[in-house]
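Input record (one chain):
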Amino acid sequence: DCPGKEGTGGRKRNLTLLRNKLYMGQRRRTEPVVESTATAGDHGNLRRSQSDRTEYSQKLQEKMAPQVVSSTPATPPQEDEEEVSRRMMARRVKIIAELMQTEKDYISDLDLCIKEVIQPLRNMQIARLDVDGLFSNIELVHQLSAKLLSLLEEATTDVEPPMQIIGEVFLQIKGPLEDTYKIYCYHHDDAHTMLEYYEKDEELKQHLRDCVQSLK
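The corresponding structure, as predicted from the sequence alone:
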C-alpha cells in the first residue's frame, strides 16, 4: 500500500511492455509476416510458408512481365487498287460534268439578261438611264464564259477520262478571267447604288419591271 512500492511496480510493468514491443519489432524485421485474408473470422498475422512465398513470387513476376505483342498484327484486307482507281476516276468524271453544266446554266442566264433586259433598255434610248453603267461589262463576261465552256468541251469531248486535262484549261484562261472580273467587281457597288436610284423613278421602275417580267 506504500506509494513508493506502487511506483516501483508501475516501472516494472512499463519495462515489461517495452521488452514485448522491442521483441515484436525484431520479429517483424526478421520474419516475413502478412495479414490473413483467408476468412472473415481470422485475426492477427500468419507466417507464410516457403512454398507460399515461392508461388506468390512466381505469380507476381508473371503479372509484372511485359506482354508479348505480335509483330504482325491482323489487318483488314486491303481494298483492290483497281477498284479504288475506278471509283476515283468515276468521281472525277462526275465533278467535271457538274462543272460544265454549271457553266452552261450561267451562260444561259447571261443570254437571257442581255436579250431580254439590256438590249430592250438600250432600244428605248432613255436619256436618264445609263444602261452601260448599270450592267458594267456583263457582255464581256458572257463572251469569256462562252470561251471557257468551249475550252472545257474541247478538253473532254472524245477524250478518255484519264486523258482529260482540266487544270490546263483554267491556266490558259486565267489572265482574261482576272482582267474581266476585276472590272465587273470594281463597278458592282456603283451599279447597285444606281439601281436603287432608278427604282425611285416610277417610269424607270416600270421599264425595269417589264424587263423582269419578260425574263419570267
